[in-house]
Amino acid sequence: MNVSIDNSWKPLLKPEFEKPYFSDLVNFVKQEYKKHTCYPNGQDIFNAFNHCRFEDLKVVIIGQDPYHGPNQANGLCFSVHDGIPHPPSLTNIFKELESDLKLPYPTSGNLESWADQGVLLLNATLTVRAHTAGSHQNKGWEIFTDTVIKTISDHKENVVFLLWGGFAKKKTKLIDPKKHHILTSGHPSPLSANRGYWFGNKHFSKTNEVLQQDGAEKIDWSLI
What we know:
It is a single chain. It contains nine helices and six strands; from the N terminus they run ααβαβααββαβαβαα. The protein is of the alpha/beta class. It has a four-stranded parallel β-sheet with strand order 3-2-5-6. Strand 5, helix 7 and strand 6 form a beta-alpha-beta unit.
């Protein structure tokens, strides 16, 4: 696994790359990719960082695992490659986007344009074995991504953290609420959304309101 990560992150995360757990994680991931089909493609593992430079970061969305179906995962949480059918959670995200901002339902499920504007689309675990959800959990990724969240909290101000579902909400303990904005809701998965815990959260408009109040440029959430 080649740790190819944008230069803006390197000074902050270099200490993690040098820790024993990260070396063990790299070895594990290399073996998994050699023996099994894994996602995302190797060059996409750190896409969340490569599309969102540290100095540009304004919003963080936290997912859990990459998609484990063929050609889905592209290294950004909830996002899929162009031309790939939208998974259920992404469909519900787009339905809320439609309702909240009166934007047309997107054709593409690729969220790169969000990331390029400063939205860090961070999965807690950055790799997965094909068709085996959770297969790369508890191997070191969570230590790394928890450090990323705490590093953002420590070194930035006025970041909007969107914590969707119970797993993401547990990350609250890593974030300084006096420096940052935390918006929570149910998860966009059908199980949560159909129980009324997702739709109507208006997180997209609320995020832009907060950003504008802080003098930052709002996110253009529209997609093709």
